[in-house]
Amino acid sequence: MKNIAVVGTGYVGLVTGVCLADLGHHVICIDVDEEKVSQMRKGHSPIYEPQLEDLMKKNIEEGRLTFTTNHAWGIRNMDVIFLAVGTPQQQDGSADLSYVQRAVNDIAQHINRDVVVVNKSTVPVGTNESIQQYFNQHVGELGQVDVVSNPEFLREGSAVYDMFHGDRIIIGADNEDAALLVEELYRRLKLPVVKTDIRSAEMIKYASNAFLATKISFINEISSICEKVGANIEDVAYGMGKDRRIGTQFLQAGIGYGGSCFPKDTNALVQIAGNVEHKFDLLESVIHVNNRQQLLLVKKAKERLGSLHGKRVAMLGLAFKPNTDDIREAASVVVANELIQEGAYVTAYDPIAMTNAAKVLNIEFANSVVEALQEADVALIITEWDEFKQLPLNTYSEHMRVPIVFDGRNCYTLEAVQEAYLEYHSIGRPVVGEVDLNKYLYIQNFLSEHG
Ligand SMILES: NC(=O)c1ccc[n+]([C@@H]2O[C@H](COP(=O)([O-])OP(=O)(O)OC[C@H]3O[C@@H](n4cnc5c(N)ncnc54)[C@H](O)[C@@H]3O)[C@@H](O)[C@H]2O)c1
Ligand SMILES: O=c1ccn([C@@H]2O[C@H](COP(=O)(O)OP(=O)(O)O[C@H]3O[C@H](CO)[C@@H](O)[C@H](O)[C@H]3O)[C@@H](O)[C@H]2O)c(=O)[nH]1
After folding, report:
1. CA distances from residue 289 to 169, 205, 213, 381 in whole angstroms, order as listed
2. How far is CA 55 from the centre of its chain?
3. Ligand 2 centre and the CA of 84: distance in Å?
4. Cα(23) to centroid(ligand 1), Å
5. What's the fold here for domain 205-288?
6. Of 7, 9, 11, which is best to mutate to test ligand 1, by the most ligand atoms within 8 angstroms of its C-beta?
7. Domain 295-449 CATH (choose: 3.40.50.1260, 3.30.70.360, 1.10.10.10, 3.40.50.720)
8. Strand order in the sheet with 312-316
9. Which of 82, 117, 396, 448 could form a disulfide with 403 if both were Cys (CB 3.0 to 4.6 A apart)?
């Protein structure tokens, strides 16, 4: 069992640290954020991620997992140092490597022996070679540093599960011994290992995310055509997915992909290609389709209601996907800002992500689905939380002023909706239960005037 430091305790760093500790290694997690570290020391996870907190507490209690803000304390005498700091998007779409540079500098100052540095941050091709050169120049006689690229493929919301059940572990290294050491760290997981050179490992990460994003934009384009030709996207995707060469996954049509990875990594890959004078037309289209898709519900609602000015809009869901509190690059942010621009009154509800959303959105937040739907003229479903999927469908008509729902995640079957009193618009499927808006509003006005 090894002594391991993990630098950066976000989604990737914390989950990696906790899981490596659970595999029996001694792990110290280092972060510059004092508040986060003090929470984690008490066994509290700063992020919402199923199973994570229980596993953290268990490994803290069993003495294999500690946390610090002190790089010197965390780095010295380690066998392996994992790097898992953020690589956010810059204005021009390229990856911001300043956190990586800072962390590499922090690590270099404290290395006092031979060590393997394993990079889990998603970085442009060639970055890990630059990191290797930096260590060669700055660590000197104190120890030999070998840099290994080990990109991460976990999904938020199922990060712990993915760590233990991933499809593959990618190890990109120029030094065979360093690659073997990293393989050994994960051996107990019994997962397929792909060993390659550093540049190919870096590219595998971007190409994988870009391919998955392409599948999503492709199915979203097909869904728009389905709406016009009278086909049903759910059946189309099911039928396509039955072909094993296509596969069933990532064919869920919706309001586009969000999150901290696909948007930034697709943009970064366009930049990486551009740097070597390759215009990545296909990926640029994928991004363009996604940007358009995120606004689809607002466009449809506007067309249906004439104008959204002064209308009460209930937004169900804010997280970029279920089972996470993350709203980075979430469609909800784009949708809410567009609704405000259109002059609508927006009330949103999300089971977990409202605290994060309140930091960036100037809208009203409700304490429940029912509170969000109260007197609404239209409801938009943004995230497919189970809570929304399991909602009795008459809840909409019982609480909304006009029961019109635009479902961006196809949460309900058309058969179920047909049974309910509801006008239902979804993605790539026919509209169900169209109400006569004029008659509806007339009755509503009559009732409010005459009690
Ligand atoms: N979030 C995901 O699902 C996911 C999945 C696969 C890969 N990735 C990649 O992994 C990397 C990390 O992503 P994330 O979502 O975990 O990031 P994050 O922003 O959630 O966390 C990064 C952490 O690093 C800390 N940090 C920054 N500089 C530091 C330093 N010098 N020393 C110590 N700590 C420092 C920050 O305080 C923060 O807690 C990114 O490159 C991302 O693209 C993310
Ligand atoms: O069929 C689908 C599948 C996903 N999505 C959307 O795509 C986005 C991303 O979803 P998902 O991939 O499940 O979540 P992430 O946590 O962003 O994980 C992706 O990004 C990570 C960071 O790089 C990688 O590690 C993972 O392998 C990769 O799946 C979300 O907005 C989803 O709603 C769809 O619209 N349709």
Report:
1. 31, 22, 10, 20
2. 21
3. 19
4. 22
5. N-(1-d-carboxylethyl)-l-norvaline Dehydrogenase; domain 2 (1.10.1040)
6. 11
7. 3.40.50.720
8. 364-365, 345-349, 312-316, 378-381, 404-407, 423-425
9. 396
Report how far ligand 1's centroid is from the alpha carbon of 99 (Å). Answer: 9
Q: Which CATH architecture has domain 3-196?
A: 3-Layer(aba) Sandwich (3.40)
* Structure token digits, residue 354: 């409202």
Closest-lying ligand to the alpha carbon of 166? 2
Q: Which residue is associated with the tokens 């938009």? A: 380
Alpha-carbon torsion (298, 295, 48, 364), positive or negative: negative
Asked if 3-196 and 205-288 have one fold, the answer is: no
Q: List alpha helices for 345-410, DSSP H.
A: 354-358, 369-373, 386-389, 394-399
pLDDT tens for 326-344 read 999 999 999 999 999 999 9
261 flagged as catalytic: yes
Structure tokens at 412: 């309900």
Q: How far apart are CA 415 and CA 229, in angstroms?
A: 20
**What ipTM does the predicted assembly reach?**
0.98
Q: What is the pLDDT of residues 140-175, one digit of tens each?
A: 788 899 999 999 999 999 999 999 999 999 999 999
Q: Which atom of ligand 1 is nearest to the CA of 106?
A: 31
